[in-house]
Amino acid sequence: MLLSMIFNLLSSIYYFALHVTTAGSFPPPLSAKKEEELLSKSMAGDIEARNTLVEHNLRLVAHIVKKYYTTNCEQEDLISIGTIGLIKAINTFCSDKNIRLATYASRCIENEILMHFRSLKKTAQDVYINEPIDTDKDGNALTLIDIISDETDIEEEVDKKIHLEKLSVLLSGTLSDREKEILEMRYGLNGKTELTQREIAKILGISRSYVSRIETAALAKLKRHFS
Question: What pLDDT, in 10s, does the model give residues 76-90?
Fold first, then answer.
């Protein structure tokens, strides 16, 4: 929240300063003593001291951004991102680590920019389900969801799956081997090919009427158990 507030208050100043190209246009670097004094105040919550530190280190943002942008649009984005890195550097700098603020800030600015590029790379191949990807013959936009959607009733499919699982259990636990075999061939269950009663009779060497009686009795058993 604090970083966002600081950035919003100073963004217009930073943007103007970073677009000035005349030599000496940036605020001059601070002396080591002055920088240390402002850092101490900034760490104590002095916003004005923090702003001064940011302004006097803007040249770091400009210098680092030049290595990365190729268009004016990119330049504007990277200036904003680099400035956020600078603000983070000043907020988190610790003088006890025996490192200069400029060195630490340069790393933070560059890290912020590199994180931005990594983020862009991760999302470069993303395809959003409602994003237009083509048009139909009437010129209407087609989205991915239009192409992959179907009319499948999910509730019906789930209910069907539950009943099939129950049927599989009943076939083995309720029916005789002959009844199970005939129903599997008759209705193509458990990977069997669906056959007519006459075809089953021929395979088993029994009459078609006998197959019919066994089928009817087996279905009655299953119906009772399902009920």
Answer: 778 888 888 899 999
